[in-house]
Amino acid sequence: MELEAFGHIPKAGMERTRATFHDVIRATEVHRYLAVIVENVPDVVDRWELFDWWADGLRRLRPGHRVQFLSVNSAHVGDDGNPFAPQWRDRLKMVFTRWDVPAPNLTLTPRAFCQHCDHDVAATQTWAPSTAHKPYRVGRYRRDPGSNYGQYRYTCPDPRCGRRVEPYVLPAASAIDLSDLGRRIGDMSRQPAAKPSPVSGPDSLSPHTRPPSPPARTCSSATPTTTTPASTPPPPNR
Ligand SMILES: [Zn+2]
Question: How many domains does the chain have?
Answer without folding.
Answer: 1
